[in-house]
Design brief:
CATH architecture of one domain: Sandwich
Radius of gyration: 27 Å
Number of helices: 21
CATH superfamily of one domain: Immunoglobulins
CATH class of one domain: Mainly Beta
Shape: globular
Strand content: 15-25%
Strand order of the largest sheet: 22-19-16-13-12-25-24-23
Structural class: alpha/beta
Largest sheet: 8 strands, parallel
Distance between the termini: 56 Å
Low-confidence stretches: none
Mean pLDDT: 95
CATH topology of one domain: Immunoglobulin-like
Length: 714
């Protein structure tokens, strides 16, 4: 980035658009954001602030645009609280306001409050500002506020969210424990070389029926591009709104019963499974090639009349977003997986050439619509089976931070995404070089102008067939680290979002779904954010290895937060058995990711581990003479028992811990240097473990029973 001076006008402009001009880093040090970073962030917001003349004009434009707007782009309120909003009309004109609620009823008589703000001269027309109040008895939902001044009409969306999310009635005030799993890694004798939704169902029924689990937390099931090579990371999807058909169980599709050549499909499944058994890595491309061929055959089987009606209803419900996604998939198969390299006339979903392509290739487009319907059905069945087996919550989905910039959502939603920057995270204790996730962030201004509809649809989709959702990096709904293209993550800055709107929508959708929300609030977090999330009824996340007091010593369990999901480890660290022997240090040293000498890192890590072992000894969960590198199973059990000493509402255990796995699924800061997201579930000896064997595994049963007992502690 070219250098840019930090002038008063640049700081003013950045502040108006929510771009941080300074911030506190993870050590508490105040950091001043370079002018070049501010200019780049503003450019991504459509604000070209390179020169002083441009900045002065842009500040004036920003002011004029505010006064030219008759109503806010969206009004966000909480149920039970009155909420004020402004109205701009020609000075002195009478104002007519009425509210159409979501159920079709109309409310009038909104109270006007005192507002003594002076009129604004908008190109010779005086604009006055009036303040009105929404009453405190509005029902939760999405309503429309209408303004009428003479012959002029305007309207805006009113979002009323619950003041807080209350736990689902079936959970009540009880604690619950659940398995967390990377589903793709959990293969069974009947899956196609990769874990699928039938495997998820079986895992949920086993953990609930045999061991009293209340939920099963699964990695993001978001869609990947249908073209090879398929992106392995579930946290870098092509779409967050739609799912990955790689997770379908072909034989569970009802039309499979009427397929003439079922034997061929079963042979294809057997071949894929045999190859997978010999492979050291999960091969998504091979699995998808075989599964897609089978699904193409199934697509040709005629529907029953009832199934046809159900499919049509699904397509109507999903509407244009489904059409856009299916069209993108068909286009990607013709022109490649990066829409930015397509012919110019195909680079925007509303172009005429895109509509012409969809019409000319209707069967190809419809095939991808149909796949999404099958996913919707199989996920619904998984949730129904989980709850039927006794789970209080059932499936807990995972919502990734963002999407692949080359993918379907980036194409379909490009008008509300910021170009020229990527989302990531600043340096912190565990990722000292920062992180660049290569994902385009939401533009907060465009999102507000769209009344948050794309975000509303995303959250609703995540909760449609789930008892809960984990939101990765939930602090990104408050502020998100933007990194200009071509620079290191350390050279980024924060951009603010309207957290009252974003969290309000999450609360509203969770309320409607009767679901719980877990926010992954690790990393650098402003202190007030966790209090805000707690007050709104959202749970945070506590990872044992990260829980420490002001002196750096382990934080005693009784001092952990109640409003959170607690676990020993997470998918960005090795399973507990691997962590105990320093697998995370060894791997980062091997990959050149350490920012200090390896011996210092090893010493610090051993001290940190030993402090936790001493804490286990202190509370009577571990004998003082246990060697953590020899008696790993004892330590793993003690650490999970320790979770029960905390007041945390939800407790989670990784399936990888249950089978004694040591290898990490993902090493942040790497792509091809390590086989991220491609490691099949294995035991302590590194040999793959099929799901069928887990159900009879003594180690898994013992650890599940430890978690059940931990959750039952008061």
């Amino acid at each position: 980035m070219p250098a840019a001076e930090r002038t008063a006008s640049l700081i003013d402009l950045a502040t108006r658009y929510g771009v941080a001009t300074e911030y506190d880093d993870w050590t508490g040090r105040r950091v001043t954001v370079p002018g070049a970073t501010l200019v780049a962030a503003l450019a991504a917001l459509g604000v070209p602030a390179t020169t002083e003349d441009e900045r002065a004009e842009l500040i004036a434009d920003h002011e004029r645009a505010h006064w030219a707007r008759s109503l806010p782009p969206a009004i966000v309120a909480r149920a039970g609280s009155a909420t004020s909003f402004w109205v701009h009309v020609t000075h002195g004109d009478p104002v007519g306001l009425w509210l159409r609620l979501e159920d079709g009823s109309v409310r009038t008589g909104l109270r006007q409050l005192e507002n003594n703000r002076a009129p604004f001269d908008l190109e010779g027309r005086l604009i006055g500002e009036a303040t009105f109040e929404l009453p405190d008895d509005l029902p939760v939902g999405y309503h429309r506020l209408h303004l009428q001044v003479g012959a002029f009409d305007a309207a805006t969306t009113v979002i009323v969210s619950p003041a807080r999310i209350e736990p689902p009635a079936r959970l009540g005030q009880h604690r619950a424990w659940g398995l967390s799993t990377q589903l793709y890694s959990v293969r069974s004798e009947r899956s196609w070389g990769i874990g699928d939704l039938s495997d998820l169902t079986d895992l949920a029924v086993w953990s609930a029926g045999q061991h009293g689990a209340g939920f099963i937390l699964v990695n993001p099931l978001h869609a990947a591009a249908p073209t090879p090579p398929m992106e392995p990371s579930p946290y870098l999807p092509t779409s967050r709104r739609f799912g990955n058909p790689l997770y379908l169980r072909v034989e569970a599709v009802p039309e499979f019963a009427y397929l003439r050549h079922r034997g061929r499909v079963r042979k294809a499944q057997a071949r894929v499974q045999a190859r997978a058994a010999r492979a050291e890595r999960i091969d998504r491309d091979r699995a998808w090639d075989a599964k897609r061929a089978a699904l193409e055959s199934l697509y040709l089987v005629p529907f029953s009349r009832g199934r046809e009606l159900a499919y049509q209803a699904f397509c109507r419900r999903e509407g244009t977003p489904l059409d856009d996604f299916a069209t993108w998939c068909a286009l990607s198969e013709r022109y490649g997986g990066d829409w930015r390299r397509w012919p110019a006339e195909l680079r925007h979903p509303r172009n005429e050439a895109v509509a012409a392509f969809a019409a000319e290739n209707a069967p190809a487009v419809d095939f991808h619509r149909w796949l999404q319907w099958l996913l919707d059905e199989q996920l619904a069945a998984a949730q129904a089976s989980a709850v039927g087996a006794g789970m209080a919550l059932g499936v807990m989905t995972d919502l990734a931070v963002g999407v692949d910039p080359a993918g379907a959502d980036a194409w379909a939603l490009q008008d509300v995404l910021a170009l020229g920057v990527t989302a990531g995270a600043p340096p912190d204790e565990f990722n000292q070089l920062g992180q660049d996730w290569s994902q385009p962030p939401w533009r907060p201004d465009r999102l507000a102008e769209a009344a948050y509809e794309p975000f509303r649809a995303l959250v609703a989709a995540a909760l449609r067939h789930a008892g809960g959702v984990r939101i990765d990096h939930i602090i990104g709904l408050f502020r998100l680290w933007w990194i200009p293209e071509g620079v290191a993550p350390t050279d980024g800055t924060y951009v603010r979002y309207d957290h009252e709107a974003m969290i309000g929508i999450v609360a509203l959708e969770a309320h409607r779904a009767g679901a719980i929300v877990v926010g992954e609030d690790l990393g650098t977090v402003e202190p007030w954010v966790r209090d805000y999330l707690r007050d709104r009824g959202l749970l945070g996340t506590s990872i044992l290895w990260f829980e420490s007091g002001p002196d750096g010593a382990p934080l005693p369990a009784e001092q952990w937060r109640q409003a959170c999901l607690s676990a020993v480890t997470t998918h960005d660290l090795p399973p507990t058995a691997g962590y105990l022997v320093g697998e995370h240090v060894r791997l980062r040293d091997e990959l050149g990711l350490l920012t200090r000498p390896a011996d210092e890192e090893w010493a610090a890590d051993r001290a940190h581990r030993d402090a936790w072992l001493a804490e286990l000894v202190r509370v009577g969960l571990l004998a003082a003479d246990v060697d953590p590198e020899v008696d790993r199973d004892q330590v793993v059990i003690a650490l999970h028992r320790y979770l029960g000493r905390s007041p945390s509402r939800l407790l989670a255990m990784s399936l990888a811990d249950a089978v004694g796995e040591t290898r990490t699924q993902n090493q942040p800061g790497t792509s091809d240097e390590y086989p991220n997201w491609r490691v099949p579930l294995a035991g302590p000896d590194g040999r793959p473990v099929l799901l069928d064997a887990v159900f009879d595994d003594a180690r898994a049963a013992a650890l599940c029973d430890v978690m059940r007992a931990a959750a039952e502690l008061p």
